[in-house]
Amino acid sequence: xxxxxxxxxxxxxxxxxxxxxxxxxxxxxxxxxxxxxxxxxxxxxxxxxxxxxxxxxxxxxxxxxxxxxxxxxxxxxxxxxxxxxxxxxxxxxxxxxxxxxxxxxxxxxxxxxxxxxxxxxxxxxx
Length: 126
What we know:
With about 130 residues, this protein is an alpha/beta fold. The protein is about 25% helix and about 25% strand. The chain has a five-stranded mixed beta sheet with strand order 3-2-1-4-5.
């Protein structure tokens, strides 16, 4: 029984979302269409950095640039950008986005903020 061929056609998209997760150790960028289906993704490790070099702004720049080039080849013209996390890749991401040629329609910081913190430990008995 012959195996079915995978359809590797690149989906055409004009608008989508870019999610950037910048942690202290890594930066992950994902491009989705408007309904949330992930199309392209890259991290600093996928670009070729290892160890402590993954947490540098330059590594974040390379990862985000790789994702945006793939998205531009698929026809992306405008994007909503969501940035999450406290890492050094945040500022690098914005610099790459500005120079990429993709129009940013929304720039949102979705970093979770604790409102009252976690529950404190029980009081110590005397």
